[in-house]
Amino acid sequence: MDSRQVVTITDVARRAGVSVSTVSNVLTGNRPVAEATRVRVLAIVEELGFRPNRLARGLVNRSSKTLGVVAAGLEYYGPSSTLVGIEQQASEMGYTLILSLIHAPETEDVESIVANLLTHQVDGIIWAIPQIGRNRLWWERAYRHVPAPVVFLNTKLYPALVGVDIDNRCGGRKATEHLLEMGYRRIGLIAGPLDWWAAQQRRDGWQDALRDAGFAVDDRHVVEGDWKPGSGERALANLMEQYTEMDAVFVSNDQMALGAMRWARDQHVHIPQDLGMVGYDDLPEAEFFYPPLTTVRQQVIEVGKLAVRELARLIIDPEENTERLILLEPELVVRASSQRR
Amino acid sequence: MDSRQVVTITDVARRAGVSVSTVSNVLTGNRPVAEATRVRVLAIVEELGFRPNRLARGLVNRSSKTLGVVAAGLEYYGPSSTLVGIEQQASEMGYTLILSLIHAPETEDVESIVANLLTHQVDGIIWAIPQIGRNRLWWERAYRHVPAPVVFLNTKLYPALVGVDIDNRCGGRKATEHLLEMGYRRIGLIAGPLDWWAAQQRRDGWQDALRDAGFAVDDRHVVEGDWKPGSGERALANLMEQYTEMDAVFVSNDQMALGAMRWARDQHVHIPQDLGMVGYDDLPEAEFFYPPLTTVRQQVIEVGKLAVRELARLIIDPEENTERLILLEPELVVRASSQRR
DNA sequence: TTGTAGGCGTTATCAA
DNA sequence: TTGATAACGCCTACAA
To answer: Which of chain A's ends, N or C, has fewer CB atoms near its CB within 10 Å?
Structure first.
């Protein structure tokens, strides 16, 4: 490591025998420069290994070319894939990412995280925190005072917010309709934690499909899990007990479905003969479950990319910042776990 | 969104009836300030919602309080968990993270990524890219010219580099020794892609254990996969064919193990009776595989935290920057897939 | 204990 | 087409 990053635009200018503004113009392309000097300056830049200091740039431009991303649950496939999408699109558009993680998405202090991001003069913020209980409360009141555009992921439509999400209700409906089509009639639900917006939506989709088909829904047809495999196992046990006629189950994510599958195997309940099953997420592993799991695939990467594109629009034109929720439609992936014959 | 973040340190000073340096001293604590004025200034800071601009700060301090993280494979459990560890430790130490992702870790252009990070005046860099083939080449020659300390993850010991890793060789050895203890004698290997350093090490550990136990190792006992479940399936098929006496297999990650399990089930090869199996990673799902998978657990979060602590040391005292590799020891998690009786 | 002034590296404005 | 110079917001000598 060389002791300092000495070389500044002044050094380049001196060495090239031009003024700093000329060097600046060569680099930014903001004003025309004679081809000869341009080439000469670039050569010196190369020779000296000059890298413009973004802090200084950001200071005068009032724009850091930086996006703040606040995320949670990166241990899970979906959220981390979305982050990948965000990064890809951002770097493609010339933005650098500043990452903050939240470890208790239902409670954690939002204000200080946003404040820190603003401190770094981010040009915009992507709020990739699932909506749980009242954790949008802070935003509902402070939103207008945040001096940077924000795009929300996994959110319901709020006044004045811009959001991008995958249509969980549609996904829940597709899963359930598929089970109906396959001849199952008494379809239970293993839900995610119902204070999660996404879990509510998947349940509502399940409900919609059943009602539309003329079936009654009942509280006894639902058990709540915590997204993790162990809870799926317990949930299926409970569900079978309180809904004895059940012949199929929609499980609100693949991890819980895996747990449910284990319980079924241990109890000699055969999937799909005795019990049809559909999951949600399409983990890379789902295809290799036993039996291979029918599930709902979400475009997790795409949602990240889309969020960045939306945010970039808001940055360029703040007038665009008007209430809207962009929904992507998930896709059913049919495998053995839902096909009786 | 208010149009601009108008309020600067000057505004605060004027409002409080003091000079800017006094405000600065209150905020940084770098020089004593009379309690009365301190309180008054803080009140104004609060009232005006003043947030010091980090770009300006970084410019004069020549330190952005920012760490660059370059990562890959975030879709996978291990890398994304490590990122979680990095973020936790960094935010605890007052650093903000700048994230860059690499999508083709064996080829992608390293130079421009590092350059961009330096442009943002990061105080240090965590290089969380697995070592594949010759992808450390750039660093081997340019390392000394990077004007910021770097800590490498998943790397072998190189002259002058500081690295943090989990001891894959030890993990491979533990997995294999366990199978030997459980009475298996002819232990095959489904390896990761052998241009990956980690895959080589796991193989070497497998080899060490077998040799120490007095067993011969042979090329026919190894098949290479690509870390994904599908390749595990194919690999086991091939392995059973070319190593017919095999009674157990060490699979270099859990995803491939899952694929292998499916193949075994389809072929009526019973695990663990006909074939013992040990995986690697301890995915949250592994406990729910059929049968539950014995595997090697890595402290993926801890490795991230450790890397940040090391980096912080290097930032504070560049003299510390001397060749060293810190290895964490992985841990065997015993489940049904390796217990014959 | 507090204030003044210079400078961090860059871009933008205004002249030339 | 180029050059001087004043910001950008903050910190830190140096003075008071």
So the answer is: C
